[in-house]
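Protein modeling request. Please complete all fields; requests missing the sequence field cannot be processed.
Requester role: graduate student
Desired output: 3D structure, token encoding
Chains: 1
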Amino acid sequence: MESSELETMRKSFSTVKKRSGTIKDSPSTKKLIKRVQEIKKFSIENNKELFNQTLESFKRNDIDFKIADSSKDALDIIDELLVEYDCSTIAKAKSNTLGEINLKAHLKGSNIDVVETDLGDRILQLKKTDNKPVHPTGPASHLNISKIADIVNDSLDVNVDPEAREIMEIVRHDVLKRLENANVGISGANAITAEEGSLVMVHNEGNISIVSLKDLHIIVAGIDKIVPCLEDAISIVKLETIFATGNFVTSYMNVISGPSKTADIEKKLLKNMYGAEKVVVILLDNGRSEATDECLYCIGCGNCVVHCPVYNAVGNEFGFNNYLGGRGVAMSKFIEDEETCYDSGLYMCTLCGLCTLNCPVAIPTNEIIENMRKLSAEVGFYPKAHGKIKENISNNDSPY
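Delivered output (400 residues):
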């Protein structure tokens, strides 16, 4: 990242810290933190049972579901669905899981126009190069308004001033125009409820509502998103919002429990009133079954990177795909392999523990990283300078 981008990112992070500072220390938030920690621990420890319950609930709700063991499996399923719906344009919502499987890179070169509906993600998409997000809920937090105006002007052939509302309206108009003929929407999910078979999604822009109204709504979510019930899911997304934005709730919480339907004519069930005629959930494993339990506690608020000294110094080169910072490094080992974990910044981490101190579910990322370094060294992935020091100590009783 450029120095100017890092500076803008740090300013954005400071705003988040100030906005969330008071609310994070309130008695109600502390009570919520304890509840969510218990929910995530129980959910991960009982994932297999909850997974099976979820499948039964999906069947009851007329939600189609597919199980993907890997990124490739997920992409193959998506490809088949896009062919089935003769898709030329996809309305896409913000999703770290879709970033994990590299959906846009996979579809690049096809005749399918993937349109980001989230403003930050759309700005990065228009940027075209060097467009990795820097925060899970504020992907373009490293770009100042002048840079954003330049990106929009260059990509859309307009002459917008560096004024926030004007930029927003130009991008919104372009997105809505591109989506006029879109018949497929694709998103992730913040939580999945086993008892009800519902998918909970939070957003401020209203864009997920647009995505969910397409004929086919594809939802890709990790198996770690499953929780026992809707009340648990609401607790999780509320805590995520507090730590991600400094607000108690987002503007919208979508709860999707099946395709659009009505029974207002003689109680005869009809599908596809206004929303999707078909909802397909792709439950993604992709290494999660092998991951350390604590790695799966994450609720996606991004508060760890806001406080991480390494991330604030180097930016999004510390992390893996859309999973940023130390937790992203840790997940990369299970999603990919030891070499990817090393390349994602395994030895960048200072092990200071600020990520854990500021994590609402207290993920011990520094301890996980330290253990992974031991395993990485055993298979030959470690800084060569460290290897030289080790060799000198062994041969000369000195690191020199």
